[in-house]
Amino acid sequence: MEEKLRILVVDDDxxxxxxxxxxxxxxxxxxxxxxxxxxxxxxxxxSHTLYDCVFLDYRLPDQDGLSLLxxxxxxxxTVPVIVLTGQEDEQIAVELIKAGAxxxxxxxSRLSSEILVQVLRNAIRVYRAEKQVALVNQxxxxxxxxxxxxxxxxxxxxxxxxxxxxxxxxxxxxxSQFLATISHELRTPMNAIIGFSQLLLRPRCxxxxxxxxxxxxxxxxxxxxxxxxxxxxxxxxxxEAGRLDLKPQIFDLxxxxxxxxxxxxxxxxxxxLSLFLQMDLQNPVMFNxxxxxxxILTNLLSNAVKFTESGGIGVELKExxxxxxxxxxxxxxxxxxxxxLQKIFEAFRQVDQSITRKYSGTGxxxxxxxxxxxxxxxxxxxxxxxxxxxxxxxxxxxxISSLSQQRSDGTSNSHKTSVKKVFWKQRENLRLAQEGVxxxxxxx
Length: 444
Ligand code: ADP
Known about the structure:
alpha/beta; Helix Hairpins; Heat Shock Protein 90; 4 domains; 5-stranded parallel sheet; 5-stranded mixed sheet; binds adenosine-5'-diphosphate
């Protein structure tokens, strides 16, 4: 034992105390030894000083070793105690160990330095180990209490979040309901404005002056634009409420695509943009909702016209497999930064969200297209390069009842190519096709 130990010997017999002292010195124990002759003094010493070990005589003048030991433990003095006795008594030994004696030693008559040192070492080791265990236990208890408290806090937070969630769901439901009602209510007067403007423009209603015609045309165009915005809001609120249903029927996809492209031609021409259409469909028959297909294409094309200042716009229709068709809308417009490619499919997201933005719109077109394409079991992706243009690709099942579980994440997996190159290559293909190289393709 290298450290200096504080040892207390409690014995009323001066000779016995001396024996213990000699034996310990002989064994080379580094120590500070104190000696007392009765139980009362022992308690007083132990209350004020921390000892590493106590050698206690079982028979003291004022009390026996067992009651002293019990007194110590009830005062929370946990020093290791080795009891020395004149004779062996098993019953006493059991009582002493129960009361917390570390060791019950053999009779004093047989004390030897080896035995005493061994007992001392064991006593201190056991005591320290017990203390360590008690400390670890206490730490465990504390961490357990902490965990229980944290758990309770988490449960409370979870309940709070669930409540907030319910409130948000309710707020969102009310918002969708409000949007649906208001856009529905606004559509009726808007249709009246459109109808009467169209009537006014008919020669049957009487001749209009050039200025009057110009004004009525502006009313008509603005009303149509407003109606389109209202329809977007209405569709969006229906989609959010899960109430947007398709009306599937058999139809000719080539015809729907062709008609839609022709309707958009004047818009493209107003901006001096070329518009090409390339169709390569063996079988144009499709089972889907033709009005919604038209809506998707109109939306993509009006975006293409809106965001393109020079160059052109193209539409390709082709068979991807027996059960899948692909519609692609290309433009040589301003393009979309790669960081925004994911975001543009989120509701109300626009690349330019400033109030002073150049291009008008609600930011609902692409989310509606994406939702419609997904309801149809298809997939939409986009590839774009800033300043070069964009390519939107849609894959659709020929028959919408065979809904494929494709995921649409708004980005293209295909290898990135120059969008402008793709555009001009498609145009060139088309020109060759017109010259008779490929009889199936044609430009309108
Ligand atoms: P809106 O056109 O009403 O703003 P959309 O949902 O149709 O809303 O499009 C979201 C955004 O995606 C647009 O505001 C625009 O920033 C970007 N975007 C869509 N199509 C194109 C395109 N062809 N070229 C460049 N940017 C586009």
